[in-house]
Amino acid sequence: MIPLLTSIFAITLRAGTSLVYATVGEIYTENSGILNLGVEGMMMMSAVTGFGAAYYSGSVWVGFLVAMLVGGLLGALHAFLSVTMRANQVVSGLSITLFGTGLASFLGQRLGPEANSFNLAGLTGPRLTAQPIAFVINIPVLGALFSQDILTYAAYFVVPLAWYYLYKTRNGLNLRAVGENPITAVAMGINVVKTRYLYTILGGILIGIGGAHLSLSYTPGWTENLTGGRGWIVIALVIFAMWNPARAVLGAILFGGINAIQFRLQAIGTTIPSSFLNMLPYLMTIIVLVVMTWWETLKKRIGAPAALGVPYMREDK
Amino acid sequence: MIDQSSNVILEMRGITKRFPGVVANDNVDLKLHDGEVLALLGENGAGKSTLMNILVGLYRQDEGEIYVRDELVQISSPRDSADLGIGMVHQNFMLVPTMTVAENIILGMVDLPLVPDMRQISEGIRELSQRYQLKVNPDVKIWQLSVGEQQRVEILKLIYRGAEILILDEPTAVLTPQESHELQEVLKIMTKEDKSAIFITHKMEEVMSFSDRVMVLQNGRLTATRKTSETSPNELARLMVGRDVLFRLEKEVVQPGDVVLELKNVNAKDDRGLPALRGVSLKIRCGEILGIAGVAGNGQDQLAEVISGLRNPDSGNVFISGKDVTNNSPLGMIKAGVSHIPADRMGMGTVGNMAVAENLIMKGYRNEPISSGGLIRPKKILDYAKRMIESFKIATPTAKTRVKFLSGGNIQKTILAREIDACDGILVAVYPSRGLDVGATEAVRNMLLEQRSDGRGILLISEDLDELTSIADRIAVLFEGKIMGIINSEDADIEVLGLMMGGARLEELQNESGLKSAQVKD
């Protein structure tokens, strides 16, 4: 029983890593008042470009760098559309998702080597391997914490760091003020436009890491629809987390955990149809989201930044 | 008091600012001395706030120059003005409700370490708040504070950030008379330390009691500058409006009839789910205006919403002409005879992008002859609208002009026309003259008095005590959702009303004064 739990926990952490990065990224962005619904497209684009770059360079790190660059650029695009052009943020985000998933699928069929008829799918490239830490790995169940790849280890620090940054530093205070009340922020001498650009791009970079973690570690390689809607799960997790990175971990572990369990069940071979099992993580996310939001509303702790999704205009008259 | 020889700390020369279609400031000059309180007087839309927004870098002037301590300065952002020691308390407070007082005060400050020591900052704020008698706890969240306390936070914030020139935009609008007096004391402490203040207002009495010097703006132009000691409220009023201001209110003697509206023990919550009305009971008779006084946010909005069916009470009953109408829908309340003039003219009162005519029939569209068989009849609508525009003197180019292009006064007249025409017994008017110029205010008040003469029961919610004492028959004071007492407006004393607005019950006050007069007798 203990080895089974340990292995489920290990898979949970592995499956949750990309979600943690992307969710923390989206939390930064949304705290500045920008709603980014382009996460799915951005993860897909960084997954495909990250894998392609790693395949040709032979280095996972080049892959991750390219993925961060692509994520950051798409973040900048969203910031340009919603901050500078003051486009509707929902429409801008959805366009990035549609554009991103479409382009990623196209690139997946074009960027590959001629030998594979230009396909990236089906290739084996470099992958981020697990770096188990000696001794501690043998602790029952909790040992799973120490059998991970470097990015998962880094995630253990990214989350508390994000929390500390948002709630304890001057920059975090200013960032939250921009998302809560941009007019006040401006009157206090904060540059709203710069802040929103900065954190939408930072969010994009973190989403890029999340996307590339899928194609370079969790399920190495490129396949059509690789993210499987994780970008949408991220947006749900941000709400579940009440825009607080500390709570995002819980959400990521929940989703990752159900994923791990359903994999196990499929491996053992049950009579439950596999498509139903595949659906489970998504279904549970929706149920938990609804229940938690309902519960938080009861406790009057609705935490959305007050100006989320509202374009800011100066000199309105 | 200020002597003319003291230093000029700030000078604005030839400031002009244009918005599409309006010149908000036209070649305005302003001078401010060390330790001086300068009042900026003018009606709504005279350009006071625009001028000050230029000074704090929220707007940029089209023409003109600004000098601080004789040096030409460019102010292109609020940070620039803060660096020059200029700070403003805006009419809508610049505070983040979900953050603490201390966090709000340090928001956007640059000379702080990356991880600020909040304990030490709170301590500093506490010291300042004692020195300036601005009592406030630095560690509570803004949303937990009253409006008066939030204003103190705003002032503390400016002092903490080293402001030497404080701009206050209509600071007393949200205060009880006693709180206004406290504010005056705070200003005195500050001017003693050679800080200066510019004080925006449209109330003559405040100019007289707060300021050393007064500048009057009219239609974006500077029309006069006076030493406060050398002018009078009457002269200022004339300078501000451009004519003599005498409210010509025709308040007839009306014998109140039957009770038309009664609230019994009504409790209701606000949108956040917190109690907003607690055990409110009141009666309004035909031909009577019941005024509701109180600092904004003490349950006035919820009271109006309960009566107009927009909010269901948790408990208690509402009766109209003796019939229980508790929990009626808004349409049910309209049919029962309630008309509602909401505080939010552009949000709840009108649809800005629709024509005056369409806004006028927004209630009447259900009835013949405006509509028949489910279709509206444009010809009849125009006829009706033209009649209304004429009888309510709505200044609009055509009946088809979009409402958002009208002035505030004419938007309000449009709402009044619709609501009064549809009114069948009860009129609920929420801040009906707020932000209107003197002419429009007079018109609105007279319309309410006419309705009173016609035998309607009127609930008038207002933050203007002069308005209440001049047109209401009785005045009830709301504090934290409770009625502190109801007094006849002839007997109303501003001091007593002020104390009640601050949470004192009428009986307590009467007992106290009863005791005092008894002591005098001894």
Throw out a few tags for this protein.
heterodimer, A: mainly alpha, 69% helix, B: Rossmann fold, Rossmann fold, 3 domains, 6-stranded mixed beta sheet, 25% strand
Structure description:
The complex is a heterodimer of chains A (317) and B (522). Chain A has 317 residues and is mostly helical. Chain A contains eleven helices and no strands. Chain A has one domain. In chain A, α3 runs antiparallel to α4. Chain A is globular and about 60 Å long. The radius of gyration of chain B is 25 Å and the shape is globular. The two termini of chain B are 42 Å apart. The C terminus of chain B is likely disordered. The chains are: A mainly alpha (317), B alpha/beta (522). The interface between A and B is medium-sized, with 24 and 30 residues.
Count the E strands of chain A.
Answer: 0
Largest sheet of chain A: none
What Rg of chain B do the Cα atoms give? 25 Å
Low-confidence stretches of chain A: none
Tally of individual helices of chain A: 11
Shape of chain B: globular
For CATH, the homologous superfamily of the largest domain in chain B is named as P-loop containing nucleotide triphosphate hydrolases
Structural class of chain A: mainly alpha
Strand content of chain B: 25-35%
* Mean of all residue-level pLDDT scores of chain B: 88
Q: Biggest interface and which pair forms it?
A: A-B, 24 and 30 residues
- Overall geometry of chain A comes to globular
Question: How many strand elements of chain B?
Answer: 22
Q: Tell me the number of structural domains of chain A.
A: 1
Estimated helix fraction of chain A: 55-70%
DSSP helix fraction of chain B: 25-40%
Known CATH architecture of the largest domain in chain B: 3-Layer(aba) Sandwich
Number of contiguous helices of chain B: 18
Largest sheet features of chain B: 6 strands, mixed
